[in-house]
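Why do we care about 3D structure at all? Because function follows from shape, and shape follows, mostly, from sequence. That is the central idea of this module. The next example makes it concrete: a single protein chain, its amino acid sequence, and then its structure expressed as tokens.
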Amino acid sequence: MKYLIFDTKKEASVESYKILKSLIDENSTLGLATGSTPTDLYAEMIADYKAGNFSYKNIKSYNLDEYVGISYEHPESYHKFMDTNLFDHIDINKENTHVPDASAADLELAVKSYQEELNNAQIDVQILGIGGNGHIGFNEPGTSFDAGVHVVDLKEETIKANSRFFDGDINLVPKQAMTMGIKDIMRAKHIILLAFGKEKREAIRSLVEGEEITENIPCTILKNHPSVYVLVDKEADFKL
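And the structure:
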């Protein structure tokens, strides 16, 4: 595990793109995340593409998760997020992008379908954020390390944290999500985890400094992965 500390989210994101680009080529498969954490990384990807330095025509992508019960076109759906923050600004073939279909009438079938897609893919680099409670993807505390794709009931603290995207109204935040399992995340060749803000500090401490690997702090399983890069801003650095 490589632990890198930066003054700002922007500086960490610039470096994370350098790391990402060193690990992939123009035929690679990416695991992508949503939320405020990766937005500056995606901006770096877009800028480098527009400068003519990288093409995404043959890149494939698989997203970590999606809220249950909101449509693709909902402004806070992760499908819409990916279009707005990355896909609409690069030359990726939308048929090569994959986001869980959590708006499906048959969720059980949708879970099975996404699991099959992941089983037939090899993610070269997985981008991760981290929750204040240590969740990765939407794998909340208590999730089995052996879990594959599944529907999860979101913890109250996760709902509160995400309410900022829903005008601060927790009643508007979906209460469930479909997510890659921890087992799926661990299959990636490389993992780049980004963490910004003081609310992430204790989770980062558990990941980097703690000795225990426990399902109560899902991120700690990453200690067992052979290639993890953890990039934080100074507010998320537990050494402060």
